[in-house]
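Practice problem 4.
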């Protein structure tokens, strides 16, 4: 069975994602076509300290204009758009909405981690003003 165009995650993976989002005070934005299925989603969490990316992953950052230098960062994760809705600006809209929410909450920056071979995500990050972060 497929949902969101991908194999369903194992129950323990969903439970772990839900727990992480809840503990970090994050959330989930879902895009839904009118009278249709869910077409995309993005999960996000808030964290005070920079989280190091796993080997093979690139981390990009976008600072907010209303930046509170002591504010938390928003970590954007689990961005997904159903195949039938790709190349229509939905991923851009989801990231923009999550960033707008974080900016209103006084966050310093948005951080996205993606695999170094994910050229589509690298292009989206660049188009949305994200800059690569240096490993610390």
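Answer key:
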């Amino acid at each position: 069975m497929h949902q969101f165009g991908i194999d369903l995650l194992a129950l323990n993976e969903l439970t772990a994602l839900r727990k992480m989002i809840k503990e970090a005070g994050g959330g989930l934005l879902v895009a839904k076509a009118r009278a249709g299925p869910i077409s995309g989603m993005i999960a996000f969490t808030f964290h005070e300290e920079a989280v190091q990316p796993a080997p093979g992953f690139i981390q990009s950052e976008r600072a907010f204009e209303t930046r509170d230098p002591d504010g938390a960062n928003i970590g954007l994760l689990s961005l997904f758009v159903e195949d039938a809705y790709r190349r229509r600006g939905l991923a851009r809209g989801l990231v923009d909405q999550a960033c707008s929410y974080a900016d209103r909450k006084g966050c310093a920056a948005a951080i996205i981690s993606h695999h170094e071979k994910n050229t589509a995500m690298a292009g989206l990050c660049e188009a949305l003003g994200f800059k690569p972060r240096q490993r610390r």
